[in-house]
UniProtKB/TrEMBL annotation:
It catalyses: an N-acylsphing-4-enine + H2O = sphing-4-enine + a fatty acid. GO terms for cellular component: cytoplasm; extracellular region; plasma membrane. Gene3D superfamilies: Neutral/alkaline non-lysosomal ceramidase, C-terminal domain. It comes from Rhynochetos jubatus. GO terms for biological process: ceramide catabolic process; long-chain fatty acid biosynthetic process; sphingosine biosynthetic process. The active site is at S254. Keywords: Hydrolase, Lipid metabolism, Metal-binding, Sphingolipid metabolism, Zinc. This is Neutral ceramidase. Residues 2-508 form the Neutral/alkaline non-lysosomal ceramidase N-terminal domain. The lineage of its organism: Eukaryota, Metazoa, Chordata, Craniata, Vertebrata. Binds 1 zinc ion per subunit.
Amino acid sequence: NYLLGVGRADCTGPVAEIPLMGYANPDQVGGGLLMHLYSRAFIVADLDDNKRVVFVSADIGMVSQRLRLEVLKKLKSKYGELYRQDNVILSGTHTHSGPGGYFQYTLFWITSKGLIRPSLNAIVNGIVKSIDIAHQNMKRGKLFINRGTVENSQINRSPFSYLENPASERSRYSSDTDKEMVILKMVDENGEELGLVSWFAVHPVSMNNTNHLVNSDNMGYASYLFEQEKNKGMLPGEGSFVAAFASSNLGDVSPNTKGPFCANTGESCNNPQSTCPIGGATMCMAMGPGNDMFDSTRIIGQNIYLKARDLYEKASQEVTGSLSSAHQWVNMSDVTVELNVTHKVKTCKPALGHSFAAGTIDGPGAFNFTQGSVEGDPFWDEIRDQLLGEPSNETKDCHKPKPILFSTGEMTRPHPWHPDIVDVQIAAIGSLAIIAVPGEFTTMSGRRLREAVKREFDSHGISRMNIVIAGLCNVYTHYITTYEEYQVQRYEAASTIYGPHTLSAYIQLYRGLARAIATNTVQDLPRGPEPPVFNIGNTTLVPPLTADRVMANKTFGDVLQEVRQQYHVREVAEVTFVGANPRNSAENATEHNFLTVERYASTSDSWHVVQNDASWDTRFYWTKGLLGRSNVTIEWHIPHATEPGIYRIRYFGHYKKKLSNNHAVSVPFEGTSSSFEVTAL
């Protein structure tokens, strides 16, 4: 038995004009909303309440160091020493459709236009609030664990790298991806259901880099389905049951199961360079199982949800035992690894290789860089030398065979480009050990890490530990490939920033944490060097918020394009309003709702909300016009099961108005469509 608490809070942030974080495509800025982003928190405490573990999974691209440090600071001011860097794990789901701009290291400023305070604040506040809710609702309960195989939901997107791993190692596994899902089920002592955490390795990139609607992708859709099922009759984001679908060792794992094809000719580009005969690497894109990216997100998310539901209903193995957590800060650019008694190697200062710029089959880069480059390109190297400076010989040698594109560890203006100080962390809840990793481990890297940690526990007499990797935790350090995968320098290897021995270094470090937990010597672990906090204001290229305007004889919320009078189920009801910048609303309220779909009840002569802007079936598009004007288009993709009747769509916004004293205020407004009839097929 434990004390358990679960909580969920909104962390969506501004849905317009902010670059989305994930594909590093500067054209991919927010322009509306498909689903809200949430932080989901789970607290486990022992019954005499002297030890706690907090696991948070947030619908964001990754947890940044800045984000983690700000969350810990807020927790400290609220709770003192209760929630600390050793017992709080913050993990990102790795959606590529959430707002960016919450990083302090310079590299991430380039595509997310700097440090964007409203974006960072929304995530910090959402995470803290989700922990607050869990903290306030602690009750006695039980944990159950289960595991099973998820089919038809992933492919390895760098199979040629995977094949570099030793045949003897590969022969122990049936697949080049980890198909296993591990779930943790939480119930209170009366058997009332509290929540679920699932760990499964797949990239949430069913939504591709042409998408402009903020959303949580396939993993978020799985959470949505699970929570909608358990919180019956509630709107999305409401209800007490919390279901988190957390990331794992997803480094080389794509949900785009049809594999890579040339966008122009339709032929396969499943080759070591992922390039097309015409158009090169920029044309090589992987396709999901659906007929468009929304459909693929739905299919993959539903597969994951159905497996989790099955495992949840059948979960009978109880998790019992004591709680512990171990954490260290490590300078990852200077770790000496003892491979064996005679052989020592070192990690490197961070650097990105040429193939980093190639992107992947889930989102190709610009400029036709190709994956698998072990040679540099004199043209780009020369530009790099002129703009950013040439990498030192020491760094070049350390990273071989990686040809260095950006020697980020040697770039310090205006602030360092990449972290040196990295978190390593393990939390143990009885027989479950959660390894919190600061990036994206590939399939085989994750297998080696789990196995090494399990062996470490075994060697100290703690057998039958369930080892799970939680991805994208605490600080973002890109990818971690195996030494063998590193040699062929596809995207994941080029993005293994601390060099060829990165994985060996992490294995050594995590074994040390596991040993400390197993031998009850956590208090003797050195804390390590504390990470820096750079003094950065709101440094951003995001346009400032200006006054919103309307065209003559129109007012905010007026309908520009009306709905039809009648729709069948499965059709799309669409209405366009005179709009205002959605960023005004985000800065007024963390949980602003932009729209409702309402059904008329004749018995009470009133309207009832049936969908909101967090519903999968609604889409909110914002289109910026000239001179402060803008439009909002709302779509309702009418689900098959919709009850026939009379409906309407409403829009809620804020417009910014300049006052005479040069202050600006946000003024709320709303718009309503005509009513329309929905009929069965």
